[in-house]
Amino acid sequence: xxxxxxxxxxxxxxxxxxxxxxxxxxxxxxxxxxxxxxxxxxxxxxxxxxxxxxxxxxxxxxxxxxxxxxxxxxxxxxxxxxxxxxxxxxxxxxxxxxxxxxxxxxxxxxxxxxxxxxxxxxxxxxxxxxxxxxxxxxxxxxxxxxxxxxxxxxxxxxxxxxxxxxxxxxxxxxxxxxxxxxxxxxxxxxxxxxxxxxxxxxxxxxxxxxxxxxxxxxxxxxxxxxxxxxxxxxxxxxxxxxxxxxxxxxxxxxxxxxxxxxxxxxxxxxxx
Amino acid sequence: xxxxxxxxxxxxxxxxxxxxxxxxxxxxxxxxxxxxxxxxxxxxxxxxxxxxxxxxxxxxxxxxxxxxxxxxxxxxxxxxxxxxxxxxx
Lengths: 272, 89
Description:
The complex is a heterodimer of chains A (272) and B (89). Chain A has 272 residues and is an all-alpha fold. Chain A has helices at 9-23, 25-52, 60-92, 106-125, 132-146, 156-164, 169-201, 209-215, 221-251, 256-271. In chain A, helix 2 packs antiparallel against helix 3, helix 2 packs across helix 9 (221-251) and helix 3 crosses helix 4. Chain A is globular and about 85 Å long. Chain B has 89 residues and is mostly helical. Chain B has helices at 41-52, 57-88; strands at residues 17-18, 25-26, 32-34, 37-39. Chain B is elongated and about 75 Å long. The mean pLDDT of chain B is 80. The A-B interface holds A 45-46, 49-50, 52-54, 56-57, 60, 63-64, 67-68, 70-71, 107, 110-111, 113-114, 117-118, 120-121, 124-125, 127-128, 151-155, 157-158, 254-256, 259, 262-263, 266-267, 270-271 and B 2-5, 18, 20, 23, 36-37, 50-51, 53-54, 56, 58-60, 62-64, 66-67, 70-87, 89.
């Protein structure tokens, strides 16, 4: 790892991808398994709202129940993120992320849950502005990266840790930009994959691809909402890996690397 | 060992490490490696005290109440947002 003071966006991306590769399939699978219900619930919630249109106000109770379901599904998603970030951190420290990665402490998990529902509320409160959405996505990922360092339960320490690790805004903005592109690329690839599947199904005798073609058409809002959910699922582990590396590098300014450089300078000045 | 730098608490002893929290140079006896990082006795005690405060029940209660309140507030806000956005269509 390069000295902490010199890291940039490319270092974070490179090492983030390495961290995700080191974590391996089982943790990636576990994360996807825990995140999938939330993403599908979000897609369904938005689909219902789109379908209701101007009538949505009359179905507040139904939409409220769907929103509460999303809130409940945040809990397994948070645990999945906490485990994934812990596995990435163990990998960065040169350890094999085995069962130890599953032992997420009660305080980091509770802190992450608190920060997640806070950011979620902020996301919905500012959803109409659209521009605030990427900031909320970034805050949510940063919360997962900073949660292991929460030292005491309460309302302020989780927020303090989140803000403490939020430095180097340019790197974070760059990271967000790259991830937004990654979501678009993943979306297009998934769409092409589904269309290729429908095309191949047409070659199988006895199958009627016409119905599937209508369902998997981009004009079907449910289809593209599910596609978006899939694209987010594919990209999210890489965002978490990159954020873990980012937090690790931020913290190394007050631990290993930075201290080693400082000791070197001290030795040189004493010798001179 | 740090050449020609002495321990802040034992000036007669050579410096062995620097505390990561307060950056004081300390001797081998005063330095304690925790999580692979050296701390002086004072900072290590402060860190342990901080760990003790983790059990603070008031903090847990506050965090649980805030999480619950934000959970319901988030659901309400989600409904209001989608009703607003769906109405704009």
